[in-house]
Amino acid sequence: MSKYYVNKFLYSIDRDPEWVARYKDDPAGTIDAWEKECGTWLNSAEKTTWLSFTAEERHALETYDYEWLFAYGAHFFLYLTLFIGLFDEDWAREQGPLSYQREWARRLEPWTHKDYPSVAL
After folding, report:
1. How many domains does the chain have?
2. Engineered SS bond to 53: which of 6, 11, 58, 114, CB 3.0-4.6 Å?
3. What is the pLDDT of residues 69-89, one digit of tens each?
């Protein structure tokens, strides 16, 4: 539906350890729950009924597809900090410190020779 909605998801999940744990254990279920519990709130007093994820957005969030999110224009800092929280410890245990971040950079390296995707809403 919008970069705003994807970024709102990434931002709000990353700021709550319980949501982070849920997202790691069950990404699809967490996305559904977040849409019902949090995604409809525009602010503390207003709700919306029309915002939702597109099939492509939902798939990228369910599969932690940061390459797609990057190309789509989701704000990279939001998903980088969230995904580091989700995966860094596991990767570091298996492959050493900063291994997740190095893999992240390697997979996005092709973008270093292209125009950076806009994060504008």
Report:
1. 1
2. 58
3. 888 888 888 888 888 888 877
